Amino acid sequence: ISAFSATIYAFFMASYYASVVDSQSELIKEIARHEKTLEELTEAKEEMEQANAALVIAKNLAEARNRELEATRASLEYNALHDALTGLPNRRYLDNVMAQYAESCRRDGSGVALLHVDLDRFKQINDTLGHTAGDEMLIHVAKLIKTVVGEDDFIARVGGDEFVIVSHVLE
């Protein structure tokens, strides 16, 4: 082969290998970019997992707080509708029940029997034996009334020494 042909051959081979080297160099750069992207995605995944864990904790705390608030609401509602001493429904609860009975009576023609119990000389018990004895007397009376009324009857303590018994009467 002539020197010219050898030079041209060498030039083409150098060009070819240069393009192969350039391609490999570009490929190495592309791999490096992919590795960088993979690292960034891995970091992002770890950050998301940490954020998800924080969200789960926050959700659990919020649910616990909601349960606590619901229990508090129920307790407040119970306390608002019941006498603290006897545990019987109070006048406010009685008002609600009477409204329900009134609607029921209008609807089905039934009736309501109402008994108002006022303890005679209760003030004397408080004055002579003290408020603790008076409280014990009220608790005892509430228990007695509960034992003698029907299962479906409603009992309320509406005042210091006053109780109301309501019975739904079907015609």
Kindly describe this structure.
The model has no long low-confidence stretch (mean pLDDT 89). The chain is rod-shaped. The chain contains four helices and three strands. Helices cover 72% and strands 12% of the residues. It has helices at 3-81, 91-108, 122-129, 131-148; strands spanning 111-118, 154-157, 162-169. Strand 2 (154-157) and strand 3 form a beta hairpin. The longest helix has 79 residues, at 3-81. It has 171 residues and is mainly α. The protein has a three-stranded antiparallel sheet, sandwiched between helices. Helix 3 packs antiparallel against helix 4.
Structural class: mainly alpha
Q: How many helix segments?
A: 4
Radius of gyration, taken over Cα atoms and rounded to an integer in Å: 43 Å
How many strands?
3
User: What order do the SSEs take from the amino end to the carboxyl end, as H and E?
Assistant: HHEHHEE
Q: How confident is the prediction overall: mean pLDDT?
A: 89
List keywords for this structure.
171 residues; mainly alpha; 3 strands
Itemize the secondary structure elements and their pairings.
Layout: H1 3-81, H2 91-108, E1 111-118, H3 122-129, H4 131-148, E2 154-157, E3 162-169
Antiparallel strand pairs: 1-3, 2-3
Helix pairs in contact: 3-4
Summarize, please.
The chain is mainly α.
